[in-house]
């Protein structure tokens, strides 16, 4: 599930067949359950696999139900995918708006979704929506999954469809990051649902509606909806939810789901499923603990394997190869691992490439071994060309950025090994004493020292220094402890999260915004745990108001977990580490070198005790959401907790324009064109975990018309 650090008030002023049943594993980082390194050369079976293009042809011929590769929708005039283009680079070729004229931007329209929290939803809204622009229309979902079409030039509403998601379905927050669009190649242009909008909902349904009218697609599932609770097990509202747009490849809708973390080992499965984009029928299932047995669903009376790692974030797909790339999370109990299966250990916190036509694994690349830090992969991967090789660019929460061969998963940039890591006293036989790290580029900063402790006054700083000395801290990958707290740095929001990176493919520049905050954690012995898992709560009880890990029971393990996300001073709310707490960096795609690095976010809304300072200093705030880069030489980003939407010169890192939003901008922006006029747009809907004001606005800007 997605993670958020509520620090706003805390910031102070200063298409293939499977490549083989045997995997083409990645040499330096892929490990078996015991943590021993594998042979660094690709497997013989992987080396002799037929080219993916040939396999795709064979599959399409052998099984007419599988769609052939379709040409991707072009980005530019449109913004047809959540990640902008089919490669999820968040790059637009539009160049009308430049560093020289961006100061002339004017607000063109504001659209209100009308979806604001009511009743038990109060304090639980984090919409995060990024609209699509397809043809003349903007296509979006609200926090509670209301589908809406809006005229892209005027902001006038075309239609809306409300699937009726109840408040009880909200997990930690009401979130719908976006929708996906699919055109049926076998349908006539004027057929109902020839092009359809597909979303996953908080109550775990796949919903498909006609792009022109918003009417449910009657041929999809039952009256336009597929129930994803099928074969999951006990239906507990809020435990299993979809918050990310699905990937659609070769006519298959591929989706995972968010499983509310920290509740119990016996949690809903993290199964990934593919559904026919026209009929909604199950095409395949990938249950990592029973991939063959449950390929077509579990046997009658059984369910998909409980408690396995899930994919709560957004996948990306290669239509030509027929592969879909899944950033996987952790097991259902994040901070204790000795009860996990070998399969969980193998796939947790890995990028997994599946054949989108069959659901069979092609390869996987693990970024953390035996993850007990909640370092699940939150970012959507991007597809790039790297020195002539089709590649996958993968950011991580630890700040590492990897570049992998798209077909095999083999690293194309150096991957190193951390060795002789601390193993702690709680489960030393489980903790891996080695971990992979990127030697090409990392956003991670140096380990903390006592002198890094900070506060609003000398007394605050002294208090934080005392807490530093009280805690276990042995640097990166300090293992969990129960006798006293431990410092996790980066925290589970550190590095890159769901907003992902943007890649200017023309200039060869990666833009990565990041968080730089620790967590202050403690494993809580079972006899001290007072919270109940979500499936044991009585009607009316709520466990969703707190951030993940704040007081999670982790039922089935010996410990609950207490997390101080961002390690805030209990009295002032100010972090115990000095700013900046978030930044934005430009990285040379060819060399991995940093071109510039700046704090992201001002102190205007932040201060001790939650009192805004109104100071415009760039001190770097926590941020949630990503950026867009354009051929015009600009980076557009909101994300920070200062409620500003800004444009940054991609060559220098200088902020050349900004405007105040009416609510928090924790969403990825877009840019598009109508009748030769370039627009930029972002949702200002706020985020309760980030402590930014909640709203319902979608706002568009453009240069003045001549």
From TrEMBL:
Keyword entries, A-Z: Oxidoreductase, Signal
Location of the region described as Disordered in the Swiss-Prot/TrEMBL record: 22-61, 68-87, 530-555
Top-level EC class: oxidoreductase
UniProt xrefs under SUPFAM superfamilies: Quinoprotein alcohol dehydrogenase-like
Transmembrane stretches, start-end: none
E.C. no: 1.1.99.22
GO MF term (any one): quinoprotein glucose dehydrogenase activity
A GO cellular-component term linked to this record: membrane
Signal peptide: 1-21
Classification via Pfam families: PQQ
Residue ranges, compositional bias (Low complexity): 22-33
Ranges of residues in domain Pyrrolo-quinoline quinone repeat: 79-680
Family: Belongs to the bacterial PQQ dehydrogenase family.
Entry protein name: Glycerol dehydrogenase large subunit
Gene name per UniProt: sldA
């Amino acid at each position: 599930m997605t993670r958020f650090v509520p620090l706003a008030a805390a910031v102070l002023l200063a298409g293939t067949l499977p490549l083989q049943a045997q995997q083409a594993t990645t040499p330096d980082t892929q490990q078996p359950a015991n943590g021993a390194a594998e042979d660094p050369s690709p497997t013989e079976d992987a080396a002799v696999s037929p080219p993916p293009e040939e396999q795709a042809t064979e599959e399409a011929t052998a099984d007419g139900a599988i769609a052939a590769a379709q040409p991707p929708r072009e980005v530019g005039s449109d913004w047809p995918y959540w990640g902008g283009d089919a490669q999820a680079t968040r790059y637009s070729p539009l160049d009308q708006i430049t560093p020289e004229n961006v100061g002339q931007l004017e607000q063109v329209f504001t659209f209100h979704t009308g979806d604001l929290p009511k009743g038990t939803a109060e304090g639980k809204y984090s919409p995060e929506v990024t609209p699509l622009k397809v043809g003349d229309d903007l296509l979006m979902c609200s926090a509670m999954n209301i589908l809406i079409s809006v005229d892209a030039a005027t902001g006038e509403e075309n239609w809306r469809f409300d699937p009726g998601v109840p408040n009880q379905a909200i997990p930690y927050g009401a979130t719908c990051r976006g929708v996906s669009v699919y055109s049926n190649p076998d349908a006539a242009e004027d057929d109902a649902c020839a092009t359809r909008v597909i979303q996953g909902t908080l109550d775990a349904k796949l919903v498909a509606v006609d792009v022109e009218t918003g009417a449910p697609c009657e041929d999809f599932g039952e009256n336009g909806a597929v129930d994803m609770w099928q074969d999951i097990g006990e239906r507990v509202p809020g435990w299993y939810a979809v918050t990310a747009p699905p990937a659609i490849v070769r006519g298959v809708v591929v989706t995972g789901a968010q499983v509310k973390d920290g509740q119990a080992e016996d949690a809903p499965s993290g199964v990934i499923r593919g559904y026919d984009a026209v009929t909604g029928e199950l095409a395949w299932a990938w249950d990592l603990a029973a991939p063959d047995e449950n390929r077509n669903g579990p046997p009658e009376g059984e369910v998909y394997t409980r408690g396995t790692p899930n994919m709560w974030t957004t996948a990306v797909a290669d239509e030509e190869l027929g592969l879909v790339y899944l950033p996987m999370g952790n097991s259902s109990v994040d901070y204790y691992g000795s009860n996990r299966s070998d399969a969980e250990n193998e796939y947790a916190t890995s990028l997994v490439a599946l054949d989108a036509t069959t659901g069979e694994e092609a390869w996987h690349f693990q970024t953390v071994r035996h993850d007990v830090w909640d370092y699940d992969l939150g970012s959507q991967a991007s597809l790039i060309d790297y020195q002539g090789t089709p590649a996958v660019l993968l950011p991580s929460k630890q700040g590492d950025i990897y570049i992998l061969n798209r077909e095999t998963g083999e690293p194309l940039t150096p991957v190193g090994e951390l060795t002789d890591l601390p193993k702690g006293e709680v489960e030393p036989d489980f903790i891996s004493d080695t971990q992979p790290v990127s030697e090409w580029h990392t956003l991670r900063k140096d380990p903390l020292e006592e002198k890094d402790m900070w506060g609003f006054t000398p007394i605050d700083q002294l208090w934080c220094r005392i807490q530093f000395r009280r805690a276990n801290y042995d640097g990166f990958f300090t293992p969990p402890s129960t006798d006293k707290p431990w410092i996790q740095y980066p925290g589970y929001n550190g590095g890159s999260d769901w907003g992902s990176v943007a890649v200017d493919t023309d200039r060869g520049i990666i833009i990565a915004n990041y968080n730089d905050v620790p967590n202050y954690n403690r494993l809580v012995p079972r006899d001290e745990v007072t919270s109940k898992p979500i499936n044991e709560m009585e009607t009316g009880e709520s466990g969703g108001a707190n951030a993940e890990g704040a007081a999670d029971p982790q039922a089935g393990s010996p410990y609950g977990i207490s997390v101080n996300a961002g390690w805030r001073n209990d009295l002032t709310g100010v972090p115990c580490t000095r700013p900046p707490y978030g930044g934005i960096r430009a990285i040379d795609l060819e060399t991995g070198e940093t071109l510039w690095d700046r704090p992201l976010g001002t102190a205007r809304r932040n201060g001790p005790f939650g009192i805004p300072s109104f100071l415009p200093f760039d001190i770097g705030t926590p941020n949630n959401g990503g950026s867009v880069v354009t051929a015009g030489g600009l980076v557009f980003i909101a994300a920070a907790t200062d409620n500003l939407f800004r444009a940054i010169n991609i060559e220098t890192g200088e902020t050349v324009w900004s405007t105040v939003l009416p609510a928090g901008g924790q969403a990825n922006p877009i840019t598009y064109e109508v009748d030769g006029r370039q627009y930029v747009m972002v949702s200002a809907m706020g985020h309760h975990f980030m402590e930014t004001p909640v709203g319902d606005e979608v706002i568009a800007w453009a240069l003045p018309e001549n």
